[in-house]
Amino acid sequence: MTQKETEQEQLDAKQESVSDATAADENPEICFVPEDVNEFMTALDEKSRLLDEMTDRYKRLQADFDNFRRRTRQEKEELSTVVAEQIVCELLPVVDNFERATASKATDLDTLATGVQMIFKQLHNALTQMGVESVNAVGTVFDPTQHEAVMRVADDTQPDGMVVEELQKGYKVKGRLIRPSLVKVVGN
Questions:
Q1: Least crowded by CB within 10 Å, which of 35, 94, 150, 173?
Q2: CA angle 133, 139, 142 (to 5 degrees)
Q3: Burial status of residue 45 (CB atoms within 10 A of its CB: 0-12, 13-18, 19 or more)
Q4: Localized where (predicted)?
């Protein structure tokens, strides 16, 4: 062989190896060792098992939370029923006394007035036992968290913002305002 032919063969061989490398880059073929495949499959099975375990745990937690919510709602309803029963039991003696007073044929107005005052005192005591207290208004400075001003009056003898008359009593239950006092306030 001549030197030219040898050079041509070497050039052809280089071009062939370059074209093979380019073809390998365009269509890469992935080859794994069987041990690697087994390792990947084991890892995939483990991840799948963990996912199933977490999904099951999530479903159980969701069911537990739903049961907790239902149980809490039932307990609230039962508690409100018990509280309502206690309130009614405290007020029933007052109702009984009003029934007796209206059924009696009292000819003396003083006796009837005394009976109504006794019933009012009994009602007041029952409310006090339940934690009900009235809001102080007359003679105090207007407090928008305790009072509701419905009228303004001019009075030079009183300072501005002083409550001079209570039109409707306000009440608190265990320190929490349930109805503000309706009041007249000085506004000079």
A1: 35
A2: 80
A3: exposed
A4: Cytoplasm
Distance CA 99, CA 169 (A): 26
Please report the pLDDT score of residue 166 as a whole number: 92
Lookup: tokens for 43:
């890892």
Q: pTM of the prediction?
A: 0.56
State the DSSP code for 131. T
HEC assignment per residue over 2-66: CHHHHHHHHHHHHHHHHHHHHHHHHCCCCCCCHHHHHHHHHHHHHHHHHHHHHHHHHHHHHHHHH
* Structure-token pair, residue 177: 């305002």
Q: 102: pLDDT confidence band, cut at 50, 70 and 90?
A: confident
The token duo for 175 is: 């320190």
In a 13 Å sphere around the CA of 114, the CA atoms on its Cβ side amount to 6
The strand pairing partners of 151, in sequence order, are: 184
3-state secondary structure 99-123: HHHHHCCCCCHHHHHHHHHHHHHHH
End-to-end CA distance of the chain: 128
In angstroms, the CA 164 to CA 147 distance is: 12
Residue reference for tokens 């968290």 = 145
Name the one residue in this structure whose structure tokens are 């006394």. Answer: 97
Domains and CATH numbers, the chain: 38-130 (3.90.20.20), 132-188 (2.30.22.10)
